[in-house]
Write a structure and sequence with these properties.
homodimer, 282 residues, alpha/beta, TIM Barrel, 8-stranded parallel beta barrel, two-stranded antiparallel sheet, 12 helices, globular
Amino acid sequence: MNANARPFQERLRNAQLQSGSALCVGIDVDPRRLPEGLAPDRRGIEQFIRGIIEATADLVSVYKPNLAFFEALGDDGPPLVRSTLAAIPDSVLSIGDAKRGDISTTAERYATALFEVFGFDAATVNPYQGWDSVEPYIRDPSRGAFLLCKTSNPGSVDFQDLLCEYQGQRLPLYEVVARRAVEWAGAGNVGLVVGVTYPEDLSRMRQVATDLPILIPGVGAQGGEASEALERGARPDGTLAIVSVSRQVLYASSGADWAAAARAEALKLRDALRVPAPSASG
Amino acid sequence: MNANARPFQERLRNAQLQSGSALCVGIDVDPRRLPEGLAPDRRGIEQFIRGIIEATADLVSVYKPNLAFFEALGDDGPPLVRSTLAAIPDSVLSIGDAKRGDISTTAERYATALFEVFGFDAATVNPYQGWDSVEPYIRDPSRGAFLLCKTSNPGSVDFQDLLCEYQGQRLPLYEVVARRAVEWAGAGNVGLVVGVTYPEDLSRMRQVATDLPILIPGVGAQGGEASEALERGARPDGTLAIVSVSRQVLYASSGADWAAAARAEALKLRDALRVPAPSASG
């Protein structure tokens, strides 16, 4: 997977063409929620993640393991991140949902952990500390950094919605983040995280960040609609949106049919999240 | 250490009285920078961290392991975090410098990793996602969360300095964070991170957050003065500042005398960072 050195947006486009879908499955595994027949230990979690990936890999363009759930497993965390990434086929991208943010030398260590130790294709990054906290994640044009912009949670109003003075305008903080991301996206490998739970903000961020990929959480358990996420978050040609769903797929059934149930949910979502192939005329 | 269930500020005060010092030593171990005689592997890193703690524990009130450096070690990371915490005496607090920030259910997993799996006494938290991303870290009044406010790096100007409309005033974003932190600090266990590299901002944040602990990076390798950090960051009675120094202590010598050299640096810093005992009259 890491030998793939094409520019990040090209890799994303290829993954979406291969699956025909903007679907991203978030891997947020809580051992207390494993389905029937799986032990709440390292082996059970590994079986579960592998089973979910095998049941859905042809339907998704991106998997998004959430690091918090791995870290809560202590010593089992890093080996489980590695076995998860090993189970993802080369045609599907991985985003390490880490939301890291730290100053330059420390950011470099986090980027090393995510991109070299684990081998993620991209990571989510918290922009609060500014440029030198983002730069280590975008040095390699084949890997991407998705900056938190307008997040899907209720608390996102606390700071992200503050009106700020920026270049003679009054803009919400999340829009300033989007505008800086556009400036920083020289190699095309900077993206945004914008939740579908604030649908008008998602539409607006697509207008501001015309050529940036947008990772869109908030579908399913958080209340958003997959099709709305794609309509508002994609470019007019249907590209550059990544719609993330976690619990709706992972925990589609708590019974022994969990893998088949996950596939059935992923199929429905794939159909709601079709990415058109380019027309023959290009 | 975790049996200590007194309120966080009381625990901090006790640690500072015991050592007589506001000194916090950041543990940012890069295996490429280990001194003479130590192998760049798990055992060498463990020896180094243990040696640094043994050489300095009576002089410091807080150790601040930086999670990025542990995560870059892959599978060795979690065991080394645990052995680091095990080496810290009960009289000294630990802050997990993780700068995590995520939405509610995920934030709970991060808090579980930091406070239950590892057993840190406090953590640094990125406030960008708002209240529900902070709340899981402050449920236990004996543990603290230090919110990134005005950080020590050059990029901190990019977003933290933006002027925002807040309650009829125009305030820099970092000051809005400080004001929200004051509102959220019901149990006294919310603190701020403010770098001494922006000294006037540090003085101002002490005025805004009268009763909150402030963790102050930026001394030493980043150019700030320890005594200035204490003067500007502490309350008038000399309390509630935690002045963090990493490389100046850790890498005081690259020779075989590294432990003695670390102690000599910590002694100098302790003397610059004296916390007065309360007067007999209270």
